[in-house]
Amino acid sequence: MATGQLFSKTTQALFYNYKQLPIQRMLDFDFLCGRETPSVAGIINPGSEGFQKLFFGQEEIAIPVHSTVEAACAAHPTADVFINFASFRSAAASSMSALKQPTIRVVAIIAEGVPESDTKQLIGYAKANNKVVIGPATVGGIQAGAFKIGDTAGTIDNIIQCKLYRPGSVGFVSKSGGMSNELYNTIARVTDGVYEGIAIGGDVFPGSTLSDHVLRFNNIPQIKMIVVLGELGGRDEYSLVEALKQGKINKPVVAWVSGTCATLFKSEVQFGHAGAKSGGEMESAQAKNQALKDAGAVVPTSYEAFEGAIKEAFEQLVSDGKTTPVKEITPPQIPEDLNTAIKSGKVRAPTHIISTISDDRGEEPCYAGVPMSSIVEQGLGVGDVISLLWFKRSLPRYCARFIEICILLCADHGPCVSGAHNSIVTARAGKDLVSCLVSGLLTIGPRFGGAVDDAARYFKDAYDRGLTPYEFVESMKKKGIRVPGIGHRIKRGDNRDKRVELLQLYARENFPSVKYMEYAVQVETYTLSKANNLVLNVDGAIGSLFLDLLAGSGMFTKPEIDEIVEIGYLNGLFVLARSIGLIGHTFDQKRLKQPLYRHPWEDVLYTK
């Protein structure tokens, strides 16, 4: 066991099992104390490597993350404290790994319930190798103004209240982490504050004892008096009694053993800690308090008198000229996290994204204000979800069904079209699903499947301006623009596209009005008089019918319709639908285990 000070203002630690809050609290304490370097040198997260971003004052820093204890110790040889936030199941193994590293001097085990046999092995190894174990079942410890372990002393507000941002003159050791917070505050009220505080942990077999730390405190010149808070159960306090009787401690010791109320119960009572259970008269709080008092410690009559006893002992030291109270300093202001400041109403900050279509902040996600459960309970389909997420309203069922029909009819058009061909070639190159899908989607444009918006835009403009089909087509010809939605490489006037016929049939049976579709048919009649392949294609059919859906449903204003056409909503239908087919072609090629595609020479015209 170490015989002097454990920590200093240059102490650095390795933190096992990443926990954002306790690490940030350590870094905030560092800044409060005026440390030049962060006290956390590295983080150990089994199976992970990289960096974690945290704050050191106002500066954002990146702390390295290592996958093993060995790698972390090798990368940070000056870090000699190991803070273990592993669960009780793995805390012993990881702690032993740390103790076996030559660079590690102190191991703090936070977990409660570590198997006692494992703890005994850790204690034996630590003693044999002159190392210190704090815990298990501990909150850790603190060197005021220098270094703290994890969540020791709680929030920054509590640390400031307890004056732990600068060293005092009192050494404090306790079994309880929660009660240590209380005593830090008590000591700060009646003395010049804590110099070092340790919570050894509440398990039956702590890695280090009360007397271990009291003897250390006795060797630290800056510590002028010692405060001890024990508890019923076990016999740890008796080692302190023996040290006092043997004269090993020459500084005032103010002690109290809590749990005197246990005598009020008729049967044995288990208090909060595993070790807080009286196993006989000698383990009772009363017996321990009496033994400490007989050995020379200052022991009050009750816990309520503990504060007064500490105050009296400190004032006696000052009166005898054995100590001079530490001068108070003003700690720096810790920058407040933005989220905390916003919640408290201290600042306002602009948002980075605006979303009007969905909200996942409640108990369940909502699409345009409609809860997910309602969507399922009402039996809504894909068309209904598209109407909510794309158009921000629930469209009539015939509109949602039309959207679904468009998706069904446009899902695929065979392996030879450019999009499917690209996805097939990419799949045969061994690429992943997303790469195959994107390679096919990238071909969608004015020449392949991307004419839906243009067809709607031009048909709407021509109809709204009252142009005859002749005037419309000839004006487009003069501009050198092919009429979007007209023309097909395979279909002819005597071999119409079945998809177009199905869409038109559905619209005539269900839509209140099909004025734009009828106008597109009139345009087709004129273009067929010029060439037999200038038929209304599926882009033109969807484009014109979607105009009828928007206008006939009565749910959209004219500016909204114009905006929908301008933004490119309608091409979204083709992109969504064709994604189904492109994914299908990708799976098909992978299922068939097709080899890398190479285009045949005979299908290429080589020329100068």
From TrEMBL:
Pfam families tied to this protein: Citrate_synt, Ligase_CoA
Keyword ATP-binding among record annotations: yes
Annotated signal sequence range: none
Catalytic reactions of this protein: oxaloacetate + acetyl-CoA + ADP + phosphate = citrate + ATP + CoA
Predominant place of localization: cytoplasm
BP GO annotations: acetyl-CoA biosynthetic process; fatty acid biosynthetic process
Record localization: Cytoplasm, Cytosol
Xref: InterPro entries: Cit_synth/succinyl-CoA_lig_AS, Citrate_synth-like_lrg_a-sub, Citrate_synth-like_sm_a-sub, Citrate_synthase, Citrate_synthase_sf, Citrt_syn/SCS-alpha_CS, NAD(P)-bd_dom_sf, Succ-CoA_synthase_bsu_CS
One GO cellular component term noted in the UniProt record for this chain: cytosol
UniProt EC number: 2.3.3.8
Top-level lineage group: Eukaryota
Statement: the UniProt record of this protein carries the keyword Lyase: no
EC top class named in words: transferase
GO molecular function: ATP binding; ATP citrate synthase activity; metal ion binding
Subunit and interaction comment: Heterooctamer of 4 alpha and 4 beta chains.
Listed PANTHER family: ATP CITRATE SYNTHASE (PTHR23118:SF55), ATP-CITRATE SYNTHASE (PTHR23118)
Family that this chain belongs to: Belongs to the succinate/malate CoA ligase alpha subunit family.
Protein name per Swiss-Prot or TrEMBL: ATP citrate synthase
